[in-house]
Design goal:
six-stranded parallel sheet
Length: about 450
C-alpha cells in the first residue's frame, strides 16, 4: 500500500546547518500508525527546498526512503500559496462553514493544482513498480490527486479519505473550482468520510453539480462505480487505559491534584482554531459562574490551547480574543485562593494529557464544526473507573457515535450553561452507565480494526 498525505510521519528540521528527523505531530500520522507499518508513505517532509543544498537533498531522500517515506520537495512559494493559501485560506474555512473567511484567488488555485501534480509525479514513480498498486490518499490538500493518478494508472486501486467535514451543497457550490475538485475526487474507487452526514452531502453535491446519480452509496459514472461510505476514525482505547499505570502519569496526576485541590475539573483541549468554538465556550463559562454562584471556588476550568497557524491573521485575532476572555473571567470571579480558568497555551506531552483526562470531572468539547474530534473519544477511553461527563457539540462528527454524551448546540450559551450544571450534579451511577456504553462502542470501532 502507498499512503499519500500532505505531511510525512517524519519531519525534517534544519538548525545551524544540522538536520534532524522527528516524528510528526498530528492526528493523521497518529491515526494511521496501525496500518502504515508495511506501507510506503508519500508526503512533504516539512522543510522548504531552498533551505537545502544538493548534498542535503540527497541525504534526506536516502534517509527517508530507508524509513519507507518518499519525500515531495516543495519550495517556500509552494508552501505559501498551496498550503497556507488554498488549503487553509480557501478549503479549510469553506468546508467548516466559515464562508466569510474563505479567499477565492486563482493564483492560490493554480498553486494547489501544481502541487497536486508534483505529488502525482512521486506517487507514479513508486506505483509503476507494482503490477496492482493500492494507493490511499488523504485529506483536503490532495483532492485532485485521485484523478491524476487514475489517468496514468487506470488499473490501480485508489482510495481517498477526507478528515474534515464535507459541507452541504449550498456551501460547496460557492467554490469557483467546484467541478474540478469533484472530478478529482471521483478518480478514486472508494471515497471515505467520518460520518453518514458528510456522505449524504457529497452524494447530493455530485448529483447537483455534475449530474451523476447514485444508488446504494455508489456514484454511477460512465465507466465505473465509485463507492462512497462512512468510516468513523477510531482510537486505540487500550493505549489510554494502560497509560494510567505509567509512573510518569501517576506523578503528573499527583502534581495536578495538589494544585487544583478537591475542586471539580472542567477540561477543554483544542488546537487554537476558530472552528473549535473557544470564545463561545469561555463566554458560556462566564455566564455559568454568573448564573450559578454556588459553584464559584468549587470548579476549575483547565483550558489547553495548542498553538496553530500563528502567522495567519484570523488565528492571531482568535489568540487575542481568548487571552482577553481568560483575563476578564479570572479578574471578574477570581479570589486570593482560586483562579477559575487555568489557561495552558502549548502542546502537552502524552503523560500530562492522560493525567488531565483521568482527573477531569467534565470534558467540555464544543467545536462549531469538526470532522470527528478525537479528544472526546480519548477522554472516554481514559476513564478506567467510568466516572466523568462528556459535554459534546452536536456539530462534531464524534457526536454521531457518542450518543450518551450531553450534546449541545455550541452557539447556544444558555444550553451550554445548563449542560455544565447537569454534569456537575449527575450521579456517579449515571456517569458510569453512560460512559460504559460509549467505551464499548470505542472498543468495537477502534483504530486497529
Amino acid at each position: 500500500m502507498i499512503i499519500v498525505s500532505n505531511r510525512l510521519p517524519i519531519t525534517v528540521v534544519k538548525r545551524k546547518n544540522e538536520l534532524s528527523f522527528n516524528a510528526s505531530v498530528g492526528g493523521l500520522a497518529t491515526g494511521l500508525c496501525s496500518v502504515s507499518s508495511n506501507a510506503l508513505w508519500v508526503g512533504w517532509p516539512g522543510i522548504a527546498v531552498e533551505r537545502l543544498n544538493e548534498e542535503e537533498r540527497g541525504y534526506i531522500k536516502t534517509k527517508l526512503i530507508k524509513e519507507s517515506c518518499y519525500p515531495v520537495l516543495l519550495t517556500q512559494r509552494d508552501v505559501d500559496l498551496y498550503y497556507n493559501g488554498f488549503c487553509n485560506k480557501t478549503i479549510w474555512p469553506l468546508f467548516h462553514y466559515f464562508t466569510q473567511y474563505a479567499v477565492f484567488d486563482k493564483k492560490l488555485w493554480n498553486a494547489y493544482r501544481q502541487v497536486n501534480e508534483s505529488f502525482c509525479d512521486v506517487v507514479l514513480k513508486i506505483a509503476t513498480k507494482s503490477a496492482k498498486p493500492v494507493i490511499w490518499i488523504h485529506d483536503y490538500h490532495l483532492m485532485l490527486l485521485p484523478r491524476l493518478v487514475k489517468e496514468t494508472l487506470p488499473n490501480a486501486k485508489v482510495g481517498f479519505f477526507l478528515h474534515i467535514p464535507f459541507p452541504s451543497f449550498e456551501i460547496f457550490r460557492l467554490l469557483p473550482w467546484r467541478k474540478e475538485i469533484l472530478r478529482g475526487l471521483l478518480g478514486a474507487d472508494l471515497i471515505g468520510f467520518h460520518t453518514r452526514s458528510y456522505v449524504k452531502h457529497f452524494l447530493e453535491t455530485v448529483y447537483r453539480i455534475l449530474g451523476y446519480e447514485h444508488a446504494h452509496e455508489a456514484i454511477l459514472l460512465s465507466n465505473k462505480k465509485v463507492k462512497v461510505a462512512a468510516f468513523p476514525m477510531g482510537i486505540d482505547p487500550e493505549k489510554f487505559t494502560n497509560a494510567l499505570s505509567d509512573v510518569k502519569v501517576q506523578k503528573e496526576i499527583s502534581k495536578i491534584r495538589k494544585k487544583v485541590g478537591e475542586r471539580k475539573i472542567i477540561l477543554s483541549i483544542d488546537r487554537l482554531d476558530y472552528t473549535k468554538g473557544i470564545p463561545q465556550r469561555l463566554e458560556a463559562f462566564d455566564l455559568f459562574l454568573e448564573k450559578y454562584p454556588e459553584f464559584r471556588e468549587k470548579v476549575t476550568h483547565i483550558l489547553v490551547g495548542v498553538p496553530s497557524r500563528t502567522r495567519v491573521e484570523h488565528y492571531k485575532l482568535l489568540k487575542k480574543r481568548v487571552d482577553e476572555l481568560v483575563g476578564k473571567i479570572n479578574g471578574k470571579y477570581g479570589t486570593l485562593g482560586w483562579v477559575p480558568l487555568w489557561y495552558i497555551y502549548r502542546f502537552l506531552q502524552f503523560q500530562t494529557l492522560i493525567a488531565l483526562y483521568h482527573l477531569a470531572d467534565i470534558a467540555l468539547v464544543t467545536p462549531l464544526r469538526d470532522g470527528m474530534n478525537l479528544v472526546a473519544k480519548e477522554f472516554i477511553a481514559s476513564k478506567a473507573d467510568s466516572k466523568g461527563v462528556l459535554i459534546l457539540s452536536e456539530m462534531a462528527g464524534a457526536a454521531e457515535e457518542l450518543k450518551e454524551a450531553i450534546r449541545i448546540n455550541p452557539y447556544n450559551k444558555e444550553e451550554t450553561v445548563e449542560a455544565l450544571r447537569i454534569a456537575l450534579l449527575m450521579s456517579e451511577k449515571e456517569q458510569v452507565k453512560r460512559n460504559k456504553a460509549m467505551q464499548k462502542r470505542l472498543q468495537r470501532s477502534n483504530i486497529k480494526q
